Amino acid sequence: MSKRFAISILSFSLALASLAPAADSWADAYPQTGRQSGSPADPAEKLQGQAPSDEEIRARAKKLMANQHGDDDALELYERVERHIDRTGGIDPRTLEDRTYRIVPTGGGNQKIVLKDEGIPVDPAAYNRQLRTLADLLGIMADPNNPKTKAALAKREKRQRERAQFLDAMMDAFLPKWVGSETWNGHACDVIELNPNPNFRPRSMFQDALSHVNAKIWVEHDSNQMARGEARVTSDISFGGGILGKLYRGGIVSMEQAEVAPGVWLPTRYQYDFSGRKFLFSFQQHQVIEVIRYRRVGRAKEALQIVQGELASGKTFGEDP
Fold first, then answer.
1. Closest CA to 296 of 77, 76, 71
2. CA–CA distance, 46 with 127 (Å, rounded to integer)
3. Distance in angstroms (rounded) separating the CA atoms of residues 124 and 136
4. Which residues contact 263 (CB under 8 A, 6 or more apart)?
5. Closest CA to 272 of 297, 289, 260
6. Parallel, antiparallel, or unpaired for β 174-184 and 187-196?
7. Is the pTM higher than 0.85?
8. pLDDT tens digits for 124-176?
9. What angle do CA 124, 126, 131 make, to 5 degrees?
10. Helix (H), strand (E) at residue 141
11. Strand pairing partners for 177?
């Protein structure tokens, strides 16, 4: 539950100049271990710019949200390779799990195929079994008359509606403030701070959680796409009156995006650092997800043809391009 909230908040469709993260000094609070990209707070990279008017911010926010909705839809058409690294907390973190997956959209969700475990490639026979399982699933999803397909698509559409409603609510949930211009990964970006709107009236448990979050986003100036977002939980978030669980104050999530096809920006990195309680059990999440090798595979029928071709060729999927 907590991670699902973090992903939603992070996905930042909210980015919309509405996303949510935290404060000015997050660079000090946000772990930088293993980062490959430049610091978003480097004063040497700041650009000179004039603050946009409130009307300009609102107009760009609408465009940003529209772009993010389009990117979210496009994500269901692209396979990718994700490396998931889970660590302990503290000054000297220890790696708990390190796995690399091939993520393939099926129409009703995503199918994970393990490529590496602790840096060791999976056995070709094991990979082939996973690929055949994927082909079977895609075969089902490619048949619109199959009852399982109909049920999966109904669940997906429900998730999409809820997500779209959540993202749209961010337009009202946050008050955007332009704080300057910076370069991020070579892109000139407007930096927007997002603080909770005291007049926002939430309509769901997850919308209510937005009042406990501050955010900051980097919006690529020319494309009006979100290049980076950070969010911090500023006060404890209770679910179900605290009975179902709680996300503790101080949690930080971040996401980075890049253009993977003309006009399509998709996530390249996530980081989660938060703790909480689910029912009676405490938990911590310290995870980095690095995403590479996006490839458009289309809907289930198109993806099935690709996978069947791979099975026929007998070739093993390579992690690197």
1. 77
2. 46
3. 18
4. 70, 223
5. 289
6. antiparallel
7. no
8. 999 999 999 999 999 999 999 999 999 999 988 888 887 777 777 777 888 88
9. 90
10. helix 124-141
11. 193
What are the Cα distances from residue 260, in Å, to 131, 184, 266?
A: 25, 16, 7
| Identity at 222, one-letter amino acid code | D
> Residue 103 carries which side chain, given as an amino acid letter?
I
Contact status, residue 57 vs residue 184, Cβ threshold 8 Å? no
Inter-residue contact 57 to 16 (CB < 8 Å): no
Task: State how far the Cα of 100 lies from the Cα of 121, in Å rounded to an integer.
Answer: 9
Structure tokens of 143?
Answer: 């048949």
Strand partners, 215: 194, 231
Q: What is the pLDDT of residue 49?
A: 56
Lowest mean pLDDT among 71-80, 86-95, 135-144: 86-95
Q: Length of the chain in residues, anyone?
A: 321
Q: Answer yes or no: is pLDDT of 25 > 90.
A: no
In sequence order, what are the beta bridge partners of 141? none
Residue 166 three-state SS = helix
Average pLDDT across the chain, whole number: 81
DSSP-based three-state secondary structure for 119:
coil
Whose structure tokens read 């026929």?
A: 312
Place of tokens 């946000």: 30
Token pair belonging to 187: 């892109």
